[in-house]
Design goal:
- This is PAS domain S-box-containing protein/diguanylate cyclase (GGDEF)-like protein.
- With 274 residues, the chain is of the alpha/beta class.
- It binds ligand C2E and magnesium ion (MG) (3 copies).
- The site of one magnesium ion has 4 residues, from loops.
Length: 274
């Protein structure tokens, strides 16, 4: 079935590999037009304060409705968009869409913080700040309603520039959180150097709580360290009552995960506020 053997007898071509490759090529190609063709949309996943049990913020998560492949996950297409450079245009669309949502539902959303994921490539661009400043200047976004989620590895990449850029972002009143904390294999020294507000414990640690008790030790340590440094802590990927109990007992500030809600449409999110 579509298999060919190399001269040394090894298999260098399979149908699966070919399918994967052609899907990738097709996606990379179509990324160029996904904004104009209005194929992107955002879902929002609530972030709940563990002491009040209220929704205090929501993470914007991008979705792509591809005309042929249907729903393509951001885990698949964001890395491709970083390669092709389309992430810049897509990233700007995200800010614009969030800003439209705020304008449309000003009264309901006025106290909500929306967390926007920033990719390495976006953070590296000088134009990011100009773009954000423009939105603030035109009163399209209120900086105190915005938080930026940046992964540990993106933070570490080009530290000197990032310190500068993130400092300016903080001066605007925008909050910054460290996404997927604990998975970056990086030195912790950046925690002292970068202006951040919140640490997001990666869901792999929360997930492991059920099977590996040691994971609890790591979670506790992350929470204590973050608090001692003056940062809030949110746990990602919380799915069970037991995980919630553990996190409450250990003073985690917020949670996000299927236990409370999957990512949902903005209308549904608004229905759950108050
Ligand atoms: P992330 O920023 O760490 O987002 C959390 C991911 O975990 C989301 O997957 C979310 O749907 C999923 N999740 C939330 N709660 C649970 C849970 O309880 N259990 C499990 N198993 N999963 C849960 P999603 O939406 O597929 O996004 C995957 C990644 O793609 C994100 O990870 C982020 O790195 C990237 N991404 C998503 N949207 C954007 C975006 O707008 N811009 C950029 N640059 N990256 C994005
Ligand atoms: Mg995130
Ligand atoms: Mg994350
Ligand atoms: Mg992630």
């Amino acid at each position: 079935e579509g298999k060919k053997l190399g001269r040394n007898g090894s298999c260098f071509f399979t149908k699966e590999l070919n399918d994967k490759l052609s899907r990738r090529i097709q996606l990379e190609n179509d990324l160029r037009y996904c904004v104009e063709k209005k194929e992107l949309f955002l879902e929002y996943q609530p972030q709940i304060d563990l002491t009040t049990e209220k929704i205090v913020s929501a993470e914007a998560l991008i979705r792509w409705n591809h005309p042929v492949f249907g729903r393509v996950s951001p885990g698949e297409f964001i890395p491709l968009a970083e390669n092709t450079g389309d992430i810049i245009k897509i990233g700007e669309w995200i800010f614009q869409d969030v800003s439209n949502t705020f304008q449309k539902h000003k009264n309901v959303l006025k106290d909500l913080v929306i967390a926007i994921n920033l990719s390495t490539h976006q953070l590296r661009k000088k134009s990011l700040l100009t773009f954000i400043d423009q939105l603030i200047l035109e009163e399209k976004i209120n900086p105190t309603n915005i938080e930026l989620e940046i992964t540990e590895s993106a933070m570490m990449d080009n530290m000197e520039d990032n310190i500068n850029r993130l400092e300016k972002i903080r001066q605007r009143g925008i909050k910054v959180s460290v996404d997927d904390f604990g998975t970056g294999y990086s030195s912790l020294s950046y925690l002292l150097k970068l202006p951040i507000h919140k640490i997001k414990i990666d869901r792999s640690f929360i997930n492991a709580l059920d099977t590996t008790p040691e994971s609890g030790i790591i979670i506790k340590t992350i929470i204590d360290m973050s608090h001692n440094l003056g940062y809030k802590v949110i746990a990602e990927g919380v799915e069970t009552k037991e995980q919630i109990e553990f996190l409450k007992k250990n003073n985690c500030n917020e949670v996000q995960g299927y236990y409370y809600s999957k990512p949902i449409k903005i209308e549904e999110l608004m229905g759950r506020l108050t």
